Every structure is written in C-alpha cells, then in structure tokens.
Amino acid sequence: MSSSIQGIAASAGIAIAKAFTLQVPNLTIEKRLTSDDAVEYTRLDNALAASIADLEKIKARALRKIGEEQAAIFQAHLLVLSDPEWISQVKDYVANEHVNVEFAVQTVSQTFIELFEAMDNEYMRERAADIRDVTKRVLAHLLGQPLIDLTALDEEVIIVAEDLTPSDTAQLNKEFVQGFTTDIGGRTSHSAILARTLEIPAVVGTNEATRSIHHGDKVIVDGLEGHVIINPSEQEIAKYREKQAQYSAQAVAWAALAHEVSQTADGHQVELTANIGAPDDVASVLANGGEGIGLYRTEFLYMGRKTLPTEDEQFEAYKAVLEKMENKPVIVRTLDIGGDKELPYLRLPHEMNPFLGYRAIRLCLDEQTIFRTQLRALLRASVYGNLKIMFPMIATIHEFREAKAVLLDVKAELQQQRMEVSDTIDIGMMVEIPSSAVMADVFAKEVDFFSIGTNDLIQYTMAADRMNERVAYLYQPYNPAILKLVQFVINAAQKEGKWVGMCGEMAGDEVALPILLGLGLDEFSMSATSILRARSQLKRLSIQQAQAAIPDIMAMATAADVEAYVREKFNVL
Questions:
Q1: Range with the poorest average pLDDT among 31-45, 122-136, 269-283, 364-378
Q2: Which CATH architecture has domain 3-22+149-253?
Q3: Which CATH number fits domain 267-569: 3.90.1150.10, 3.20.20.60, 3.50.30.40, 3.40.50.620?
Q4: Which of 196, 161, 190, 158 is nearest to 177 (CA)?
Q5: What is the 3-state secondary structure (H, E, C) of 366-404?
Q6: CA 189, CA 262: separation in Å to the nearest integer?
Q7: Using CA atoms, how far apart are residues 515 and 138, in angstroms rounded to an integer?
Q8: Rounded alpha-carbon distances, angstroms, from residue 133 to 55, 140, 170, 295, 436
Q9: Which residues face 9 on adjacent strands?
Q10: Would you give the distance in Å from CA 367 to the centre of its chain?
Q11: Rg for the chain (alpha carbons), in Å?
C-alpha cells in the first residue's frame, strides 16, 4: 500500500524512480589520549590536503555544470580549510589536551557551528552548514571512511537524505538522479538553490523522508506541490506520468515564449528581468528570454577571496555583463556586504543583530575608498551597455543624497581624467526598509526609479526572520500590510513619473503576480528559470481584471484571505 509525506516544493518537476538512501559514513569519534602532538598535526595536514584536493575537483565540476555563482560555495569551503584561526584552534586543542586530532576537529568545529547557528540571519546560518560539510569531509579522511561518490551512480534514482550538502548536490548527475527529497531544509537552502539551477525536482523539509522511505522503494517526488509518494500504486504512477508529461509539455510551450514581449491578454506590457550574481549567469538570462537584469548582486565579486577586488577586476566583470546583455537594461546594486555577510579581510565588528547593523550603504558611505573604487569601475563600464545603478539599504533621504553625491563626484573625477562615461545612467534605490517605503513620496522626487526588495521588506515589516522556524509563519508576502506598502511606493513613483521594479522572491511568485500587476508594478525581476512561466501567466491575465481586484484585496484582513481570493479569481493552481 502506498503512503505519502508532505514537504516543501523546492524545485519544480515530477520524478519517478527507485529510492537511493544516502548513507552517512560512520564518523563516530572516540576521544584518545596521545603522546606525540606532531604525529597528530601531520595527520591533520594530510587530511586537509586530501579534502582540498576533493573540493578542487568538485569546484571544477560545479563550474562546468552550474556556473560561477553556485560554484563560489566551494571556494568558501576551501577558505574554511585554509582558515588559520580554525586550524590553530584545532592544533592548540591537541597540544593542550593531548588528544587525537579527529576529536579536536570535531570539538572545535562544533563550537564554530553552534556559534553560527545561534545567529539570527540566513546567511550566517548557511556558514554553519558549510563548516559542517567541510568537517565531515576532513573527519572522513582522518577515519579512513570514504564519502559516497554520487557521480558513480549508473541507474535512475531519487536521492533520499537527511540533508544534502552543497558538495553532494553539485555531484548530482542529471542523467541518473531524477530528483531528491530531504528531512530538513527550505527553499533558500543551498541544496534547493542548486536543485533549481540543475532543474532537478526536489521536495525538502519533510521531517521524515529517511524514516519513511527505504532503499529501493519506488518513489514519486512532486516538486510542484511538495508531495512524496512512497511505493505508489500503478494507478498513482499513471497519474503522475501524465502530470510529468503535462509539465514537460508546459516547459516546451514556455520555451516558445523566449523571444516574445511580456504582456497581458489585453496588451499591457511589463518587463520580466532576472537576478544574477556573476557574468556567467547572463547565458541563462538570455536563454530564458530575460528582458534585462533587474538585480546584479555585486557582493559575489568580493566573497570567496582574501583581498578586495581591484577597480580593473570589477570593471571587467561589469563590462562583460553589459556587453552580453546587448543594451538591455542592467541594474547593478552597489555593494551589499557587512554584518550578515562577513568578508574576513575587512575585519568588521561583531554585531548582535547584523541585519539591522553596519552593512550595505551604511558601510559604503563610511568606507568610501571601497565605495568609490566600485563606482569608478561601474562608471567606466557604463559606455558598454545600458547601465542603471541602485543603492541598497537606504533608510533616509540624506543617505540617498550622500550616495548620489559620491557617485556624481566620481563621475566628474573620471571626466577630468578624460575617461568616457555614459550620460544616461538612471540612479535609483532599493526599497527594503519600511521607513523608505513610507517616505516613498519624498524619495520619488529625487530617484530615477525604485526597486522593491521584498525579502528584507517583509522581514523588517513583520519583525520576523523567515529562517527562524518559530516565527516563519509571519513571513507573509501576501499580508495586506506588505501589499499596502508596495502600493504606496508604486503610487508615489507614478505621481512623479518614475518607474518601479521588484527584485525580491515575491516578484516571481505566481500568486503575487496578478496583485503586483494590478498595483501597477513596471518590472518584475526573478530567477532566470522563472521568467518563461511568468510570461505565460501574464498572457492569460487582463490588466483591467487585475486592477479591478485591488480594492477587494486591499480590504482583506489576512494573507490567507488574499491568497485564497487570488487563486480562485485568477485560476492560480
């Protein structure tokens, strides 16, 4: 008899295959007293060298398969393995306690993991997962326990695991790995992001996949609705084969829209653009019919390295993106680093609440050498395409004015040096802090455009970290409070003749799309793989119907009411 479990739909698609339960190697550690610290140091050095060799191979494979942005995960892992602070603490523990090095590695790593897991933001908790992944690899080498090589699979399977590390996911071969399901994780976990990049169906966060599914069981993973069916009947298999065929046909139909304009059934046009983190990501944007880049996250240029990127390094990256986009708009967000995204070489102060701390434009206005270097690179690159620049984390009009003044001063400096700079660069800002949303009518008089960053705007407005399971229920994109802030921003911009985009997860959300359309959003920026689906949905919508629904939506009291209304009225499955 079949059974089913429910999880989070993390990567779209339907997979049907035998279960391959990912067995964790036996990394049980026993504490042993030792008499020769030098021997333990040598064992550590050898394990680190072997782990580095593993990760260099995995990183090279990831660069070929999933691009530079996702492969940067493994550069971060390599940095952990060469972190002098971590290595010295392990060796000091051996020296002080005279214990075997694997016990020292486990103890020191657990301290680091607990430190990061206790932090109150997603990025830093992801660092805990990185340390856990790296530690497992080092311990496996120390204990002589080989890690499973997923590249060796030679039959179609569905991976079942407590969790998949970035290393695991990057090794998945799409020819044989049809999908995966995990006990833990969410849509923003590394494994989920990599699954979407690889276009492998995935359901995560089931809480019981490894308990309920046995090796060799027939399994269906429904990455569209978050269901996992165990040992399905022939009727269930037939039903999901049909659903799989429908999804494949739908994907083909979406692909046919790659070169069409993004417009509603009654002819209203908007822009569907993509979020990227590196020049290599542009290929996917163009392949999926992106009409521009709505968010270029420049912080990836600064991460996974030991020094700040030079002006010329940044110039080449920005130039590459602008040229590849062939005069389509490219919106570059200036450096959004600090607090929650640490750069070891900056030695930023530790903060109790980094999301509300010294980061983004606050850091850049204080560390103007860093800021001006980036702006010089951007302005030099501006002549190679259609560049727009926006400042993140703006809370006050003074911050925007100061940032813009620095930009204009750098522009004047370049012109005095007889360097060519475009005269048609729009200068905008992110709206991700409630204060800037409420004051949008003031900002709209001075900006060229707004881009609403809903990931932070929702968290700040609801005072709820979406990665904190106890308050995750408050991360509500459809909450009327959020919708009213978005409406206020759009109305303020329209009054001044300015345009508004959105670059948070909400921009690619099927329920949110009709609402945002009715509110008058001009540009929707999302993951590249979501663009064609959104374009298809737009073609079935009417701008008049969407606008007419807004008064009803804004009168509702709860996010659940809004979602139910939109799903029924606009036939969103």
A1: 122-136
A2: 3-Layer(bba) Sandwich (3.50)
A3: 3.20.20.60
A4: 158
A5: HCHHHHHHHHHHHHHHHHHCEEEEEECCCCCHHHHHHHH
A6: 30
A7: 49
A8: 11, 11, 13, 30, 39
A9: 203
A10: 26
A11: 25
* 101, two tokens: 């090095």
How crowded is the C-beta side of 529, counted as CA atoms within 13 Å?
Answer: 13
- Tell me whether strands 14-21 and 218-222 are parallel, antiparallel or unpaired: antiparallel
Tell me which of 23 and 384 has the higher pLDDT: 384
**Average pLDDT value for the chain:** 89
Q: Tokens 């407005």 sit at which residue?
A: 461
Listed in sequence order, the residues at least 6 apart from 64 whose beta carbon sits closer than 8 Å to its beta carbon are none
Joined tokens for residue 150: 């997923």
Q: How far apart are CA 68 and CA 281, in angstroms?
A: 8
All residues at 6 or more sequence positions from 168 whose CB lies less than 8 Å from its CB, including other chains = 22, 150, 159, 161, 191
Q: Which residues of 341-369 are buried (b: 16+ CB within 10 A; e: fewer)?
A: bbbeeeebeeeeebbebebbbbbbeebee
User: pLDDT (tens digit, 9 = 90+) per residue, 119-146?
Assistant: 655 555 666 777 888 898 899 899 888 7
The pLDDT score that the predictor gives to residue 185 is 80
Split at pLDDT 50, 70, 90, the class of 199 is: confident
pTM: 0.72
- Distances in Å between the Cα of 146 and the Cα atoms of 174, 175, 440 are 23, 24, 57
Token pair recorded at residue 246: 């429908």
- The residues, ordered by sequence, that sit 6+ positions from 158 with a Cβ below 8 Å of its Cβ are 15, 17, 18, 19, 20, 177, 178, 179, 180, 181, 219, 221
Catalytic residues, by residue number, are: 190, 503
- The token duo for 94 is 């051996």
Instruction: Name the residue ranges covered by the structural domains of the chain.
Output: 3-22+149-253, 37-143, 267-569
φ, ψ for residue 430, nearest 5 deg: -80, 140
Nearest CA-CA partner of 243 in 259, 256, 258, 232: 232
Domain 37-143 matching CATH 3.40.50.170: the answer reads: no
CB burial readout 20-33, b (16+ within 10 A) else e:
bbbeeeebeeeeee
Q: Cα 507 vs. chain centroid, distance in angstroms?
A: 14
Which tokens in the block code for residue 138?
């080092």
Whether 378 shows a pLDDT value over 90: the answer reads yes
- Cβ atoms of 466 and 459 within 8 Å: the answer is yes
What distance in Å separates the CA atoms of residue 416 and residue 383, rounded to the nearest whole number? 16
CA-based max dimension of the chain: 80
Task: Please choose, from the candidates 434, 449, 400, the residue with its C-alpha nearest in 3D space to the C-alpha of residue 273.
Answer: 449
